[in-house]
Design brief:
heterodimer; A: mainly alpha; about 0% strand; B: about 170 residues; alpha+beta; 2 domains; four-stranded antiparallel sheet; 5 helices; 4 strands
Chain lengths: ~130, ~170
């Protein structure tokens, strides 16, 4: 039998989790909208880049967010082309997962997000990692 | 809550309680929803008491018992459990490469196990994929917030000396 305070604390955490995360994301969006991470030194650096001097597949994602929020598509593509190209695919994946779309057209879901697609995504991420450091 | 019902050969659903009301559910109709261990006659489910139709049951003998469905709705819809693929990609690109890669690898296992007929294995791989993407998401968010809080604290305790944060272009 859990303590009453424990139960209250747990349910409190459950209730505030979504609004708190939403608020944090909103604040971050505002920050990344107004400041360009390429021009201010206080944005966090990629630990992999810092350690090895090589870019990871995610390097440039802060700049992508900044440029996208400012509707600068060219800038976003230049900062991290993989992330830029992946955006429609990611939005599609969320639609298939969280709406009834995946039940309505299961074959399309399987083609775009099935096992073969996952392996291709994996290969693309690794290849991009290598190619962008050549 | 989403309900399914069966006529013994075909499963129908998911339906909301309101939709189920129009389906001529009788006391003997077998119902299932996530949380029930197997198909259950409608008159044994309390929430359904109000929607039972008064039409007589069919004259056919009751169908042979169906194998009990697992607790996962997706299996009934012939759809693998959640692979967390897109979430893993986001974690890979935005935050924590190793967690994201682990998520992608488990995502492919979800699919291959599901289509090999190993439904519990697929569910397990799905849980693992979810675990790694969630760890990545929370670590990323918490580290980022702590980082910016630290920067702000540093700036304010330094007598409002923001000079070192001015644009470095």
């Amino acid at each position: 039998m859990p303590l009453l305070t424990e139960v209250i604390l747990k349910s409190l955490l459950q209730t505030i989790r979504v609004p708190v995360v939403a608020l944090i994301l909103l604040a971050l969006a505002l920050l990344y909208y107004s400041l360009d991470p390429a021009k201010y030194s206080f944005f966090p650096k990629c630990p992999f880049y810092w350690l090895t001097g090589y870019k990871c597949p995610g390097c440039g994602s802060q700049r992508v967010v900044h440029h996208l929020l400012n509707l600068d598509l060219k800038g976003a593509f230049d900062a991290n082309p993989l992330l830029f190209i992946a955006i429609p695919y990611i939005i599609g994946g969320f639609l298939f997962d969280y709406t009834r779309l995946g039940n309505r057209i299961p074959r399309v879901r399987k083609f775009l997000y099935g096992r073969t697609a996952i392996i291709i995504v994996f290969i693309i991420v690794i290849s991009f990692w290598i190619v962008r450091n050549l | 809550m989403e309900y399914f019902y069966t006529d013994g050969t075909t499963n129908y659903g998911p339906f909301t309680l309101e939709q189920l009301r129009e389906k001529n559910i009788t006391a003997a109709t077998k119902i299932w929803y996530a949380g029930l261990s197997g198909w259950t006659p409608a008159n044994e489910i309390q929430e359904l008491a109000g929607i039972l139709s008064s039409s007589p049951p069919p004259v056919n003998p009751p169908p042979p018992p169906q194998p009990a469905p697992t607790a996962e709705v997706n299996f009934m819809l012939n759809r693998p459990p959640k692979t967390w693929l897109v979430e893993s990609i986001l974690v890979t690109l935005f935050c924590c490469l190793p967690f994201g890669i682990a998520g992608i690898i488990y995502a492919s296992r979800v699919e291959s196990k599901f289509y090999a007929g190993d439904h519990p294995g697929a569910q397990q791989a799905s849980n693992e994929a979810g675990k790694w993407t969630k760890i990545g998401f929370w670590i990323g968010l918490i580290v980022l917030v702590l980082y910016f809080l630290g920067i702000m604290f540093f700036a304010f305790t330094d007598g409002g000396n923001f000079e070192k944060f001015t644009p470095n272009y």
